[in-house]
Structure formats: structure tokens, C-alpha cells
């Protein structure tokens, strides 16, 4: 079955970064954006707030880049796990991730990556505007395809006299 | 002691050195943090002989126990110093993301004295401090400075608090700006920063903030979030923020218009929150950890300002640059807002100075020649934009307007000084005091001069007579045009505001806590939050007393600077000139201040004749040393 993931809509993101402190709180019961698995990329002059998080790649660059095999997945799971006892804290995974979704923990230096909080992501639960949702890509695509179909059919709907 | 970093950074820019010191738990229990701790530090370290623009003045940046946590709206910071604009207590606060970064860098307070020999900026990364050359940044506006510094330190997550050209040029009401648009604007804190040759403070931190009882803290914060989301105010506040106030205030007849000549503006809807929402805003924005996105990002898509984009404006800019100057051109107001952010200037004071000039022009007290050919007819938006440039760079008449309404009124003379809408040198907000008596009293007594955020006594809008009797002893407390019990209302709300500013919590959030919006009992939730966050056992009464202590030490500071009852007043217009007939429900109103003042001093335990705190009051609040200090200056009544 297709797994859920965190899907972001930057149009709705207010840039408040509640997701970041919620993530740090869920994992270590402290407030510290530096250890958040989700990161709101902010480009202030143009008003951009873009929640960035692990995309659970089918072909995971981070796992492939790890020189000692410390990153792995279990059968049937999309989540990237860490064997901390063999990790050499080299940061190859950080460099390899095309989305910048892995960082090294500022104190332990171990890589930290989204684990979806065992199926109830703390960031999603705290988002004030539903800018991040925990859904499957198929669901996300359906929302988009419906929106785009309606947008593309505006003139037809008008000619029918249908209002939305 | 959790939640706090427990550390103060002291910087001496004359000597070019710094040190880190512990802040004692005893002091934090007295003054909490943020504004309260800053005011206490200021009382101890800046005496009446200190010139605000001298190296001896201390610029203090403070955060509170909640800063950096997940608690809603708790990420503000306060900047304090003796004010070059008013000569008394100066402070201003702002949201955004700078406050929490200070905490993550391991600090509760930064106290900066001295003057660097040349322009510098402070780089504070996780408790390591560097004093860096800023010669290449001097003269750059706030946006350029912020972006260049992030590039220079090589970390886009670094947070910058900086000054713009207005501060550098000595405009007395320049602020400290973070996140490009969040400005600690009032009382000239940016001007003090410029006097120290300090262009910016760049902070980056990765230290965690821990709380004493995580589960309990999380539970309280979730309750707070629930109250915010379920508030009837939520939709309005989270789509329009403070801009939602323009139309309703106009309908009540106290939208400041044409420099307080009336409370009704025919162009109100053109500059309203609804107009911005429907035609300019592209999305809502929020400060750190805030579930209430009261800020907005706008884009102007066509016309003479096509391409202009940014965050804001707030109601105060709409009311001060807009209706107060008779300007109904919303795009010009957005342009003005952008200029004020980039120059780093207080929009309330700027709007008041320009509106005052417009009234003087109408009365023939200022001529076109004096204005260098500018036509200051009400509503001339182009002239307003030009004047903002002239003030920031002190060109022509702008030089005379660069020190605020009081001094500009004195320059114009011929009675113009009486028209200046200011108290103790600080300009009145875009809230007409004649239509709301507790607010009027707040403006008169506030420790930083005319100000609403020192109390925001919204209870007088509640019309809840029963609750008024229970809480303030008289039904009149609940009605905005009544006087009785307003001294009690203001005392209580001043203490809540001091708590909010010291926790630090945004008043847009604190005002939404408890079942009935805006009648908050902040001390209740603050007591629970402090127990869970810090581990302190303090009753709501103890917590509220912290607020009272903060008000009293601030009063002692301004008394030491020479303030007495005679300064707790309002400009003559509000005391004598009734609001005109078109002001509907507020028509005919003036402010009868003296009876409210008598009641206020009485409940405060301050001497009625002088407005000076009594020794017994100060000692009851564990402020014996403050009483002794005032006595040594001959400023204590008994």
C-alpha cells in the first residue's frame, strides 16, 4: 500500500516555524529548530515560506551515499533509519540529499531525518493553516488534478451557468 | 531554573570587549524578563545625568522565559534605553524571529554601552561574540543591510536586527528592524544604536530551550492554541490582522482623521483591511511559533508602484499615514510603509509629525516657502512620500520634523506646540482618546509617553456591567465613554501588559486568552506557564504583583528624570474640544482626565499631588532600594 508523506503547500505557509519547534519537542522534548527534521525555507524579500522535509525517495541518495551502510530501510517502509553505532558522522548523506532534508545534529553530530513520528507527525498536527499535510502522493495529486481541471474548465462552467 | 538561558551578555563598545555574566534567579523572580528586566537594568545603570546619545547610555535587548518555546506568540524581544526622543524611559518591542534566536544563542539579555570608534556590527553565534567592521554597511537601508549581512556571515538562518539611514542621520524616532519589516519602532531605540556606531546585531543559535515540566507545558500551550482557534476574533485577526480595525473605528467615530480634527474619514474603506485583503494581499504571515497569522504579504500588480511587495502594513500605519493625514490612496500608504521600513522609522510618529505640519499649513502657520514649495493640503499623498524622504535625510523642513511633533510644534510656534498630539514627547497612536476614556488615561500615565500597548484596556468595550462590578467595583468600567473605575481598569491592564511584555508574549495573543475575548486574566495562565516552564510556584497574585513591580520601577525611572503629575496629561484639544457631530456614537466627547487620575494614583499607592510612588508602596513591592534611590535625589514624597 502507498505510504503517506508530508506534502507542503507554500501558498498556505505563514512561515511561523511552529512545525520546527514541534518537531524538536516531539523528538527530544526541547525547543530547538536546529534539531528539526522539517525546515521552513524563508526568502523574506519575496515573501516565500517553503516547508522542506524528507521526500522518502524511492532511490534514496542518502542511503547510497553512506560509506559505512549506517542508513537503511526496513522491508515495506519508506523511512530512512540510522544505525548510530556504526555512523562515522561524516555528513555524506547531508551532501547527497538533493533537497537539503538531512542535517547533522548540532550536539551528537548524527544525521537526523524525518521519521513521520510513527504515523502521527507532530509538525502536521501543529500547522495552523494546513500548509503541511500527511497524505499519500496519490491523494496530493488528486487534489491538484481536481483544482487544475476546475481552473481549466472555467469558461465551460460559465457557459453552463454553473457557479462554484 | 529552566526556560531561561540565565545569561546576560555585556558589551562595551568603547573598550571593544565583552563578558558573559549570570542573571540571578532572584532578579528574574522580581522582574521576569523582556521589558521588566530591561527596565530594572536601566533604572540601576542609567541615571538622570546620562545624555541619551552619549556612550554612557545602555542599549538593552531582552527576551523572556517563554521566548524560543512553542508557546503561542511568545517570540518577541524588547529594546530599552534612555530615549533620545523623549528624554525619559525608552523601549520598544518587535516580533519576528530575532527574539528566539537570542535565546537559542544562550542569552536572556544583551546590554551594550560605550561607542565604537567606527561603524561596527556584533556577531553573536552560540555565545561567541565578535565585533566586526560595518563601514561598508553604513548608509545602507535596512533591507540591503539585512541581506548583505546574512551573506557575509554565510548563514541564511542568522537573524539580523539593524538600523537604517534614519537612525544614522540622527532622526530621534528611528527604530531597530528585524526580518526586514518587524520594527521596534517607538522612542528612538535605533537612534541610540546609531549613537554607538552599532549598525547591526547578527545572532545565530543552536542551543535548546528546556522547560521544567514538558508534558504540563505542552498541555497548557495546546489549551492556549485551542482558545485562539475557537475565538470569534480568529477569522478577522488571521485574515486582516490589525488592519481590520479601520472600518469599525470609523463607524464608532474615532478613527483619527485630519490630525484629530474629527473621528470620521470618508476615505476609510479605501484604506481598510478589507480593501487590502481583496486587492493586494497574496497570503498571510506570522511571527515565530504563532498560530495566529496576523501579518500579510502584499503585492501591487499595476500602476505607479507596480512590483512593490512586502509584509504589512499594520493598522497604525494606515491610521497614521492614511486618515490622520487625510490620505485615501492605499498604494501610496503601502509605498510609505515600505519607505519607513527601509529607513527604519516609527510610522506613528512620522504620521503625526506630517499631519501636524498639514494642520499648521491649513491654519497658515506654515507657508509653502518654508516647506520648499510642498503643498501640504490634506490628502496630498505625494507630499507625504516626499516628506518621509526629507525627514529620513534631514533635508529642508525635514530637518525640523526629525525630532518629533513636540519639537516641531515648538519650532512652528504660534500655538502649534499645543496642537502636537503627544504626551511626554511621544506621539499618540491612531486611536482617538476622546472616544475611549480608559485608553485616554493610559496615554496620559504610560511610562514611555502616549501609548496604548502599555495597557490596552479593552474591557471598556465589553459593555458587561455585571462583570465590571465584580472585577472593578463599578458598572461604568465596562463602557468606553464612562469615567468611573477607569483608574482601576488601567491599573490592572497595565500590569497584564507588563507581564505580557516581560514573558514575552504578544498582546494580540494575550488578549485572546480566556473565554471572553479581550477581558483577559493573564496572571492565571502566566502562573501556570511559569510553573511548567521555569518550575516556579507563584500564585496568580504573585505573578500580577510582578507586573505591578515593573510598573513601579518604570515610574520611579521617569520620576527620577523629573516627571510628575503635571506631565500625566493630554494635549489641550482632547481636554477641551468636543468631537464634532459627525462622529456618531462618540460625538461631543472630551476627556475629563483629572478625576480618572485621582482614582488611578489612589489605587496605585502613588502620591495624588505629585504622582510619585509612596515609600510604603515601593517597600511593599520589595523595591526599598528604589525608594532609597529616589529619596537620594529628593524625589520621594514621604
Question: What is the fold's blueprint, element by element?
Answer:
The complex is a heterodimer of chains A (164) and B (638).
Chain A: E1 5-8, H1 18-28, E2 39-43, E3 48-52, H2 61-65, E4 71-72, E5 81-82, H3 92-96, E6 103-104, E7 111-112, H4 122-126, E8 132-135, H5 137-152, H6 154-160
Chain B: E1 7-12, E2 17-22, H1 25-31, H2 34-45, E3 59-62, E4 77-82, E5 89-94, H3 98-104, E6 109-113, E7 120-125, E8 128-133, H4 142-153, E9 159-162, H5 165-168, E10 176-178, E11 182-184, H6 189-195, E12 198-204, H7 214-230, H8 234-240, H9 246-252, H10 273-279, E13 281-285, E14 295-299, E15 309-311, H11 315-322, H12 330-343, H13 347-362, H14 381-392, H15 398-401, H16 405-412, H17 416-419, E16 422-423, E17 426-427, H18 437-445, H19 465-472, H20 486-503, H21 507-510, H22 522-533, H23 540-560, H24 572-576, H25 593-604, H26 615-620, H27 624-632
Parallel strand pairs in B: 1-6, 7-12
Antiparallel strand pairs in B: 1-2, 3-4, 3-6, 4-5, 7-8, 9-10, 9-12, 10-11, 13-14, 14-15, 16-17
Helix pairs in contact in B: 1-2, 2-20, 2-23, 7-22, 11-12, 11-13, 12-14, 13-16, 18-20, 20-23, 20-25, 22-23
Explain the overall architecture.
The complex is a heterodimer of chains A (164) and B (638). In chain A, the strands form four sheets. Chain A has a two-stranded antiparallel sheet with strand order 1-8. A two-stranded antiparallel sheet of chain A has the order 2-3. The two termini of chain A are 34 Å apart. Chain A has six helices and eight strands, in the order βαββαββαββαβαα. Chain A has helices spanning 18-28, 61-65, 92-96, 122-126, 137-152, 154-160; strands at residues 5-8, 39-43, 48-52, 71-72, 81-82, 103-104, 111-112, 132-135. The longest helix of chain A has 16 residues, at 137-152. Chain A is 30% helix and 16% strand. By secondary structure, chain A is α+β, with helices and mostly antiparallel strands. Chain B has three domains: 7-204, Aldehyde Ferredoxin Oxidoreductase,  A, domain 1; 235-427, Aldehyde Ferredoxin Oxidoreductase Protein, subunit A, domain 2 (Orthogonal Bundle), CATH 1.10.569; 436-505 and 538-632, Aldehyde Ferredoxin Oxidoreductase Protein, subunit A, domain 3, CATH 1.10.599. Chain B is an alpha+beta fold and 638 residues long. In chain B, helix 7 runs antiparallel to helix 22, helix 20 crosses helix 23 (540-560) and helix 22 crosses helix 23. In chain B, the strands form four sheets. A six-stranded mixed beta sheet of chain B has the order 2-1-6-3-4-5. A six-stranded mixed beta sheet of chain B has the order 8-7-12-9-10-11. A three-stranded antiparallel beta sheet of chain B has the order 13-14-15. The A-B interface holds A 11-12, 14-18, 21-22, 24-25, 28-35, 42, 44-47, 49, 106, 126, 128-129 and B 68-70, 97, 104, 143, 146-147, 156, 179-180, 205-211, 214, 218, 229, 238, 282-293, 295, 297, 309-311.
Amino acid at each position: 500500500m502507498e505510504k503517506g508523506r508530508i506534502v507542503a503547500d507554500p501558498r498556505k505557509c505563514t512561515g511561523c516555524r511552529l512545525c520546527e519547534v514541534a518537531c524538536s519537542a516531539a523528538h527530544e522534548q526541547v525547543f530547538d529548530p536546529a534539531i528539526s527534521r522539517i525546515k521552513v525555507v524563508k526568502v523574506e524579500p519575496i515573501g516565500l515560506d517553503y516547508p522542506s522535509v524528507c521526500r522518502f525517495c524511492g532511490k534514496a541518495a542518502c542511503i547510497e551515499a553512506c560509506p559505512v551502510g549506517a542508513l537503511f530501510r526496513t522491508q515495506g517502509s519508506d523511512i530512512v533509519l540510522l544505525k548510530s553505532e556504526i555512523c562515522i558522522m561524516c555528513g555524506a548523506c547531508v551532501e547527497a540529499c538533493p533537497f537539503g532534508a538531512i542535517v547533522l545534529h548540532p550536539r551528537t553530530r548524527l544525521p537526523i531525518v524525518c521519521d513521520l513520528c510513527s504515523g502521527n507527525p507532530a509538525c502536521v498536527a501543529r500547522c495552523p493553516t494546513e500548509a503541511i499535510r500527511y497524505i499519500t502522493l496519490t491523494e496530493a495529486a488528486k487534489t491538484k488534478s481536481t483544482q487544475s481541471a476546475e481552473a481549466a474548465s472555467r469558461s465551460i462552467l460559465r457557459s453552463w451557468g454553473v457557479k462554484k | 531554573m529552566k526556560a531561561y538561558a540565565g545569561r546576560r551578555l555585556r558589551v562595551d563598545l568603547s573598550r571593544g570587549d565583552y563578558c558573559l555574566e549570570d542573571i540571578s534567579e532572584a532578579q528574574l523572580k522580581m522582574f521576569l524578563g523582556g521589558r521588566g528586566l530591561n527596565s530594572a537594568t536601566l533604572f540601576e545603570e542609567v541615571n538622570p545625568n546620562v545624555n541619551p546619545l552619549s556612550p554612557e547610555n545602555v542599549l538593552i535587548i531582552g527576551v523572556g522565559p517563554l521566548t524560543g518555546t512553542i508557546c503561542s506568540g511568545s517570540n518577541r524581544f524588547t529594546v530599552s534605553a534612555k530615549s533620545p526622543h523623549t528624554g525619559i524611559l525608552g523601549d520598544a518591542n518587535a516580533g519576528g524571529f530575532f527574539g528566539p534566536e537570542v535565546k537559542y544563542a544562550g542569552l536572556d539579555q544583551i546590554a551594550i554601552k560605550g561607542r565604537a570608534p567606527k561603524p561596527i556590527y556584533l556577531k553573536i553565534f552560540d555565545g561567541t561574540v565578535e565585533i566586526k567592521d560595518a563601514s561598508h554597511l553604513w548608509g545602507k537601508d535596512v533591507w540591503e543591510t539585512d541581506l548583505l549581512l546574512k551573506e557575509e556571515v554565510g548563514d541564511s538562518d542568522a537573524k539580523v536586527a539593524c538600523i537604517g539611514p534614519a537612525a544614522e542621520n540622527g532622526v530621534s524616532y528611528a527604530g531597530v528592524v528585524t526580518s526586514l519589516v518587524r520594527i521596534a519602532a517607538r522612542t528612538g531605540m535605533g537612534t541610540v544604536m546609531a549613537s554607538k556606531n552599532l549598525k547591526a546585531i547578527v545572532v545565530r543559535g543552536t542551543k535548546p530551550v528546556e522547560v521544567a515540566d514538558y508534558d504540563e507545558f505542552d498541555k497548557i500551550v495546546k489549551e492556549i492554541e485551542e482558545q485562539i482557534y475557537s475565538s470569534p476574533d480568529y477569522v478577522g485577526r488571521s485574515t486582516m490582522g490589525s488592519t481590520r480595525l479601520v472600518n469599525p473605528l470609523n463607524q464608532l467615530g474615532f478613527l483619527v482623521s485630519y490630525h484629530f480634527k474629527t473621528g470620521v474619514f470618508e476615505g476609510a474603506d479605501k484604506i481598510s483591511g478589507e480593501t487590502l485583503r481583496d486587492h493586494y494581499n497574496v497570503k498571510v504571515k506570522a511571527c515565530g511559533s504563532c498560530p495566529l497569522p496576523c501579518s500579510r504579504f502584499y503585492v501591487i500588480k499595476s500602476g505607479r508602484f507596480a512590483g512593490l511587495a512586502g509584509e504589512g502594513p499594520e493598522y497604525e500605519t494606515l491610521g497614521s499615514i492614511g486618515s490622520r493625514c487625510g490620505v485615501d490612496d492605499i498604494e501610496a500608504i503601502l509605498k510609505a510603509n515600505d519607505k519607513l521600513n527601509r529607513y527604519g522609522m516609527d510610522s506613528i510618529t512620522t504620521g503625526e509629525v506630517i499631519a501636524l505640519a498639514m494642520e499648521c499649513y491649513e491654519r497658515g502657520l506654515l507657508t509653502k516657502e518654508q516647506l520648499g514649495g510642498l503643498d501640504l493640503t490634506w490628502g496630498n499623498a505625494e507630499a507625504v512620500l516626499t516628506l518621509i524622504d526629507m525627514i529620513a535625510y534631514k533635508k529642508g523642513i525635514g530637518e525640523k520634523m526629525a525630532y518629533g511633533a513636540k519639537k516641531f510644534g515648538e519650532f512652528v510656534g504660534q500655538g502649534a506646540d499645543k496642537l502636537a498630539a503627544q504626551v511626554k514627547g511621544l506621539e499618540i497612536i491612531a486611536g482617538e482618546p476622546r472616544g475611549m476614556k480608559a485608553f485616554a488615561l493610559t496615554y496620559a500615565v504610560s511610562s514611555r509617553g502616549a501609548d496604548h500597548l502599555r495597557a490596552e484596556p479593552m474591557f471598556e468595550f465589553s459593555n458587561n456591567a455585571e462583570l465590571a462590578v465584580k472585577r472593578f467595583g463599578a458598572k461604568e468600567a465596562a463602557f468606553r465613554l464612562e469615567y468611573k473605575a477607569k483608574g482601576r481598569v488601567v491599573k490592572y491592564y497595565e500590569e497584564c501588559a507588563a507581564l505580557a511584555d516581560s514573558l514575552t508574549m504578544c498582546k494580540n495573543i494575550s488578549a485572546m486568552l480566556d473565554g471572553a475575548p479581550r477581558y483577559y486574566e493573564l496572571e492565571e495562565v502566566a502562573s501556570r506557564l511559569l510553573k511548567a516552564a521555569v518550575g516556579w510556584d507563584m500564585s496568580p497574585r504573585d505573578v500580577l504583583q510582578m507586573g505591578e513591580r515593573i510598573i513601579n520601577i518604570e515610574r520611579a525611572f521617569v520620576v527620577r528624570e523629573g516627571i510628575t503629575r503635571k506631565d500625566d496629561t493630554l494635549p489641550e484639544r482632547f481636554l477641551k474640544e468636543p468631537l464634532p457631530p459627525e462622529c456618531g456614537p462618540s460625538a461631543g466627547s472630551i476627556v475629563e482626565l483629572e478625576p480618572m487620575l485621582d482614582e488611578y494614583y489612589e489605587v496605585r499607592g502613588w502620591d495624588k499631588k505629585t504622582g510619585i510612588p509612596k515609600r510604603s508602596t515601593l517597600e511593599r513591592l520589595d523595591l526599598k532600594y528604589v525608594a532609597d534611590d529616589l529619596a537620594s535625589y529628593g524625589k520621594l514624597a514621604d
